[in-house]
């Protein structure tokens, strides 16, 4: 195995696994630290999905080190720490503490940090992160329920999370190609920097960074900065030929969307699905908390729906409704109430004949995939940037699309089904 990856959430792991597979690496995604029983010998890259983005830093470090240990035992030559393309974190972590721990684990003293993902509108210029052209602190991420991002200067953001000196490799160096980037790394290292934020505005920048970073024992970032790594490890100058595969073999069975994300992209996708007549059941967090509504209510509704068309169960709501629920139930409790309901619903799905499942939201995907007892996934074709179809590698045979909250076009829920055979 060339590359062992540790992702701080499930949909982020899928995003990275898609990038590596698309660029020519045989990639397997595991849910949690892989057990000895899982055969990883045919994989060029393994992506371990953790749920460590918002847990206490000490736990995130412990889980990340356990994953690193398992990946090293399975033969990983390089490590990649994947976090969100919007750098989701707080002043306590977990990007800084986990990076520090993995640097020590790999016995190295230098790495880069680059969340840029131009295909999804994330760019870094002079160390500032932009989301669709808007500085991070002015984007919808400023109001994220768990990790509100109020500073777009990533050098500052990361420096608050780590005692290691943080530096910057700017656009001019990145734009000049891999040799200039390597020189910039050396310059920053000589100045005592241990982690450098790296600017990137285009896929060409990301590929150049990949080539410059291929010798580093540890790389950190979003899925974008992994773009150039497969070619660099192969010793190719050119990227893998782009895939024209737009269909995916899925087990036959019923189709369902479970949406627990309240991001603006998911709100729009739910709206488009309901407007086009997808039968939909709305989970009401207050009714779930009082017991007036249960997973059984949704399952009873489900049993009345035609088996011939996809259905939608969602808790997706606008920010003011979410804030109102959070005020009344508490932020964490509100999330857990909804996640528990969606997990209970998911557990009943295979017996009800559902084998094709789309889930919206990272935390939601974690809850659903755990309920379905999924251990590992193979990676299929891209539905939209950062979101592939996947298929379970053991246990119940399922086709799963795990969508990061903010990813996907408005018609994502409709076009995803069209790819399945
Ligand atoms: N109507 C609601 N009111 C309050 N909380 C909700 C509501 N619907 C969902 N939630 C909770 O909000 C959280 C959404 O997080 P999730 O990670 O699933 O989505 P996201 O943050 O948009 O996605 P990503 O992490 O991929 O960017 C979950 O904990 C979910 O249970
Ligand atoms: O990088 C991203 O934006 C996503 O893969 C993600 O991590 C969302 O949770």
Automatic annotation (TrEMBL):
The keyword Cell division does not apply. Residues 3-229 form the Four-carbon acid sugar kinase N-terminal domain. It comes from Microvirga subterranea. Belongs to the four-carbon acid sugar kinase family. Catalyzes the ATP-dependent phosphorylation of 3-oxo-tetronate to 3-oxo-tetronate 4-phosphate. It catalyses: 3-dehydro-L-erythronate + ATP = 3-dehydro-4-O-phospho-L-erythronate + ADP + H(+); 3-dehydro-D-erythronate + ATP = 3-dehydro-4-O-phospho-D-erythronate + ADP + H(+). It is an enzyme of class 2 (transferase). One of its GO terms (molecular function) is ATP binding. This is 3-oxo-tetronate kinase. Its EC number is 2.7.1.217. The keyword Kinase applies. The lineage of its organism: Bacteria, Pseudomonadati, Pseudomonadota, Alphaproteobacteria, Hyphomicrobiales. Keywords: ATP-binding, Carbohydrate metabolism, Kinase, Nucleotide-binding, Transferase. Residues 257-413 form the Four-carbon acid sugar kinase nucleotide binding domain. InterPro entries: 4-carb_acid_sugar_kinase_N, 4-carb_acid_sugar_kinase_N_sf, NBD_C, NBD_C_sf, OtnK.
